[in-house]
Amino acid sequence: MESVSRASEPAADIRDIVDEVVSEVAPGKGALIPVLQGVQSRIGYLPREAMERIARRTGAPAARVFGVATFYSQFRLAPVGKHVIKVCHGTACHVQGAGAVTDAICLELGVEPGGTTDDGKFTVESVACLGCCSLAPVMMIEEDTFGRLTPDEARKIVREYGD
Amino acid sequence: MADATPQARVTIGLSSCGVAAGAADVMGAFEAELGTRSLDVELRRTGCIGMCYNEPIVDVETPELGKLTYGGVEPGQVPRIIEEHIVGGKPVDDLLVRAEGRDLPDESYYSRQVRLVLANAGVIDPESIDEYIAAGGYEALARVLTEMSPDTVVEEIKASGLRGRGGAGFPTGMKWDLAKKQPGDLKYMIVNADEGDPGAFMDRSILEGDPHAVLEGLTIGAYSIGASEGYVYVRAEYPLAVKRLRIAIADSEERGFLGDDILGSGFGFRIHIKEGAGAFVCGEETALIASIEGQRGMPRLRPPYPSVKGLWGKPTNNNNVETYANVPWIIRNGAAAYAAMGTETSKGTKVFALAGKIVRGGLVEVPMGISLREVIYDIGGGVPEGRSFKAVQMGGPSGGCIPEEHIDIRVDYESVTKTGAIMGSGGMVVMDDTTCMVDIARFFLAFTQDESCGKCTFCRVGTKRMLEILERICAGEGREGDIELLEELGQKIVSSSLCGLGQSAPNPVLTTIKYFRDEYEAHISEKRCPALACKALITYEIDPDKCTGCTLCARVCPVSAATGAKREVHTIDKDLCTKCDACRRACKFDAIVVK
Questions:
Q1: CB atoms within 10 A of CB A93
Q2: Do B201 and A131 touch (CB under 8 A)?
Q3: pLDDT by residue (tens digit) across A38-54?
Q4: Is the pTM of this model over 0.90?
Q5: CATH architecture of the domain with range B437-526
Q6: Do B355 and A33 touch (CB under 8 A)?
Q7: Which of A115, B17, B347, B368 supports an S-S bond with A111, CB 3.0-4.6 Å?
Q8: What is the mean pLDDT of residues B136-143?
């Protein structure tokens, strides 16, 4: 965690994004999670300044905003690669060899699970269940789903992705 | 302008599974091909057809041949289907999996099923309210609002015997009654669409295939308890379900099935969608409520139950997706018809997501009381590749593994609970002799440990300690007394946790110890993994009698552990080998042996 400093004004673009999202999301009860989701979908993650701005605009204490952001696994507090590879580690995928798929992809990209490649192109994540169990093992890159994977196929898909 | 009957009606399964298997490309191929011809073909999409093992699936209906179903369709095969079947009038036999009037092998997948909740899924276009209405949709709501009082509705649901399909099986009628009896003008209805059990996709398929059924059931429930607002809490990982729900809600409002004055009855109800943010514990109803309120999803003490004091302190009824989807059928056909199916205590049907080591995995709906054997063997086709059945996991991380000795139990709440597992939400993962049960216990505990909200010491710390013990065992560092320690810890965590997550997290460990103690003992005393799965306990070797020196293994080995000269027997350096399995997969001579 970076050293604690006084909350300074966020960069203009972050400020504008937060303000836009806050005004779009129906004001009212329980808006914090949709606001965090909206901000993350625009920036790619939740920078500290964004969360502090959200606290200012919604009236929620910053501690609560941080508490919610760190509780839910969807929220990222650090930037991710251009493409996030989500390898499913649900029960069916686990039984059908998801571990070998993750190992193969990590080997191909030279990262640990959860890590991002040096060139910033890929982040590899293990997720709990994508709900495509009949096609196990499965991975998703952005909106694309790939099923019935073998480790070699997974490596090929990753090698050729985004070209 | 469409005329009486098109020459053919082509329907493609386009839910998440179908799309993942390539169905969108198949749809694209049909659009492209049909665009170059002047044929009168209606091309439409539908939700999950259920035969997930055969995706992508294409239904072709013609007046002459009736409805035929093709499976495993690739875009390249589309011109053939059009030419031979639609134009030529002859089925493409090598792709055919189902045909009206013909007893093809895949027919047995359906013959034991009773598709009640899934009646529309895979048949109608889930984004068309007109198709829902044509299939009898919103008749139940109309009947309720014009002929039935809230009391009558609750009595009908009670009489049907419907029990919550989210896993706990609480009688639905009784739950609605509790909320109904609460005073106050402001009450809430919630649909729990968090479906967090890994390996379960029933709710996703229902929401993607027939969202209106859920909305209709929810609205009927709202009328009965006196709620004016509803929330569908959908997990973030289901974007297609969210999209189809939004469309359904908008269409429903436009037609007057939702809003301030539904069908002119004076009853008003509005539905909002809340997306989850990735927390398994939010499937627990009080954590879910906290999440809707914008807080950390940490469960609360019950009583008070949500029926009395729930969302924002108001009386709230929370039910699972599948539970609500049963309601329109019950209202249309009557409680007696529903109660005629199933067993004495478990009425109706249950949707299961059959996956894992199974020949025919997919979404099935069966009457309560069917035997596990029938589901796994008759419907699922048994275990593939000639391997043997070892266990079936039911109930996700809260459930347990049921071994061969109980394969003939009836699938109903009480019978399943007696084995140590739970009915759960419907995930059924089949395992064979290559699955290590200690690893499975470790897998589930790693999951629940990660998802524990942290509030209760026994859950937070206890699951961590149990996980550490299991990891040691799988790494070959198991000790005498570990099994007893796991049992003791497990029992204490169950009794000292506030919510269902902690109360059930030890179940997979306790059931695998109960039924597969010998595997634990092999890991601990002999440092041996009977299923040859735990990497720390296996070695890869080359059989000198079979090795031809083709060098393939050396070429694929990522750490250069497999070496040898051309045409000479190769060897594997055990110190370098990471057991990634690449050599065994590559070897064409079966020369790689795992011990």
A1: 33
A2: yes
A3: 999 999 899 999 999 99
A4: yes
A5: Up-down Bundle (1.20)
A6: no
A7: A115
A8: 97
